[in-house]
Amino acid sequence: MSHNFDEIISAASEWIKSNKKVALATVVSTWGSSPRPVGSQMAINQDLEIIGSVSGGCIEGEVIIEAQNVMNTGTPKLLKFGVSNKEAWDIGLACGGKVEVFIEHIGDGK
Amino acid sequence: MNVEVLDKVLYAKTNRKIIILATELKNGTQVILNDDNKSNKTLSNLKNKANDLIKDHKSGVIEIDNSRWFINISLPPLRLMIVGAVHIAQPLAEIAAKSDFEITIIDPRSTFATNERFPNINIVKDWPAEALKSLKIDSRTAVVTLTHDPKLDDSALQVALNSQAFYIGSLGSQKTHSARIKRLERAGFKNNKIKNIKGPIGIKIGAKSPSEIAISIMAEIISTYRNPKELQL
Question: b vs e for B212-232, b when ≥16 Cβ sit within 10 Å of the residue's Cβ?
Fold first, then answer.
């Protein structure tokens, strides 16, 4: 694991202290060979600085777009992805999988 | 996640504490399940439903009254304290690091405990008992003694026996181990406690070389933490 949960939460905390908007994405459920296990996290700030990951790269783009909405509105969002066999193959897995990612705003107020 | 919850998660992480955070997946409501100063119906419902996940140390989703909650169980990283910067410590540190353990090598003898022999590994050049005390052995920590020198091994084992270490192992033959048990008994340790020390160390695979012995030790450590006692809330 390149980043453990600790580093992700510490980074989020630092961003909040410097008054940046922050969102946190967490893998909450997986089915089949999803690339990252339940509990994997990624934090994103308004400047699109990112730490951690929720997939091998195949869903990060969409998670980042939604994370920007979440950090602006303060409303959390649950995203569901089916990782296709083709995408799964591209990221080095033999078969596809499903993954649910919860995105929440971090901080008080919006 | 509000700043109060963020700070509590960060505090737990920084201080090697378990934290169990429940998050409602529609509105984002959050409850810390092992925050002892609170008690209400939602909390006890969540605790009951999450009990199986908590027992297995496994994060996952539970359902209560048509709402889904993510139970995030976050345990401190596993640590391995290796007493003795000896030959076997080199492959053991490597294998343990690859198994996501945080490694500390403890050896007061500066000829052995060098960064050349143990690149990128935390080395403490101090007497094992003092070093282990200041490193605060908890239930996510394994202690292995490899020096063969009672002066170093025994004092480390005494600290480990009085700690929450989930694994204690000591290198040496059956004969060496029997002598060690006698010394620990003389030092006042009860037999039911002493038998928590794995000795001769490692699972039986007929290991001979340092790497093979390291693999057999690591296998024993893994089998111990993969079959955990119940997690206390």
Answer: ebbbbbbbbbbeebeeeeebe
- B6 in A contact zone (CB under 8 Å): yes
Report the C-alpha gap between B20 and B171 in whole angstroms.
36
| Pick from A87-91, A100-104, B25-29, B212-216: least confident | A87-91
Selecting from B13, B26, B70 the residue whose C-beta is nearest the C-beta of A26 gives: B70
Sheet order of strands, B30-32 included: B30-32, B19-24, B67-74, B60-64
In order of their start, the domains of chain B are 3-74 (no CATH), 79-225 (3.40.50.720)
DSSP state of B75: P
Q: Does A29 contact B7 at a Cβ distance shorter than 8 Å?
A: no
Spatial neighbors of B91 by CB under 8 A, at least 6 apart, are: B210, B211, B214, B215
Question: pTM for this one?
Answer: 0.78
Chain A hits for B3, Cβ within 8 Å: 16, 106-108
Most confident of A73-87, B46-60, B111-125: B111-125
ipTM of the complex: 0.87
Write down the pLDDT at residue A3: 44
Name the token pair of A87: 């995408």
pLDDT digits (tens, 9 = 90+) for B159-199: 999 999 999 999 999 999 999 999 999 999 999 999 999 99
Contact: A28, B25; criterion CB under 8 Å? yes
How close, in Å, is residue A87 to chain B by CA atoms? 25
Mean pLDDT of B37-53: 84
The reply to whether residue B59 touches residue A1, judged by beta carbons under 8 angstroms, is no
> Taking CB atoms and an 8 Å cutoff, what residues of chain A touch B77?
4, 6
Residue B217, both tokens: 């030790």
Q: Cβ of B13 and A6 within 8 Å?
A: yes
